[in-house]
Amino acid sequence: MSGIRCLIFAALAVAGTALPLGQVPARAGDDAATAAQAVEPARFHHVLLNVTDPEKSLRYYRRVFGAVPVKFRGGPDALFTERSFLLLNKVDSPPNHALNTGVWHIGWGGVDIQGEYQWWKNHDVEFHTTPQPLPGRDNFYMYIYGPDKELIEINTMGHHRFAHVHFFATDVNETVKWYEQHLGLKARSKAVARPTGDPNTLGGIWMNVIQCDNVTMIFFGKPEQDPPPRWWPDPPLKELQSTKDRPIERIGFSYQRLEPAFERMKAAGATIVEPITLREPWRLKSFVVEGPDRVLIEVAEARPIPEGVWDEKP
To answer: Is 306 among the domain residues?
Structure first.
């Protein structure tokens, strides 16, 4: 694996759950930032996984990450992790797990990665990569598969909490602007010029970050160059596919009042995939939009966590 991932997650390890981009100035008042100031910031709420065996997924995330099984709103089994949920959508056949969508992986922290690797290795965890060292530090990272081949990163962060979602973007600036405009979130950096240097170095990768509650949303320009950078072992990623029917299908955010968010996003031209409905079996009032690079975004009505009570009837 490459030095670029090491550099990136060395920064993550130093900062906790955030990824500082000190080489880029803080945001100034561009149009997207101004628009975001007028929009109530969304809260991070859930990740929706397509799973073939919900009981297996419950056992896995409880055993590997200490996620807490819950009855979501008094209904189906789900998992509570840190300050958000993993919702499990049962499917009849294994979802396509090709790494060619706008969601690359989800990630947790680790403490003793090498020791944890040996434990997980003895408990039938499937690995995408073995632990890789971070240069100059006693820190490591690795990639593992969830029960339905959802890709999960673990890196040394001094805790075992759910920490990040890593996205691919065709245009990092346009993608970040969408989350600012429609969800009121604020990027760590102002518009970032596409680098022209070596894509195997930190300065040569097109990237930006949004912090939403405890979750760091990391956006990378998709590795489309030929030959691809060393940190991407697959062929050049020319076109991103929809997250629909993939292991990681939706990223969920919430507002306490849903209708104003729906009307605002609709008026602003967001692509509405599913209108407001009471979504079963989770008893969750929500709507679904298609975000940049065909990432499905679910916006739900819920109180912020930990104030929210997740097993309440709607």
So the answer is: no
Note the pTM of the prediction, 2 decimals: 0.87
Name 128's Cβ contacts closer than 8 Å, sequence gap at least 6. 142, 143, 144, 145, 151
pLDDT single digits (tens) 115-154? 889 988 888 899 998 888 865 567 888 999 999 999 999 9
What is the number of structural domains in the chain?
A: 1
Range of the domain at 204: 3-185+196-301
pLDDT in tens, 244-293: 999 999 999 999 999 999 999 999 999 999 999 999 999 999 999 999 99
Burial class (CB in 10 A: 0-12, 13-18, 19+), 109: buried
Q: How many helices (H) and strands (E) does the chain have?
A: 6, 15
Residue 115, helix vs strand vs coil: helix
SS3 assignment, position 160: coil
Asked if residue 313 belongs to a domain, the reply is no
- Give DSSP secondary structure letters for 229-283: PTT--SSP--SPBP-TTSSEEEEEEEESSHHHHHHHHHHTT-EEEEEEEEETTTT
Flag whether 191 is in a domain. no
CATH number, residue 241: 3.10.180.10
DSSP 39: S
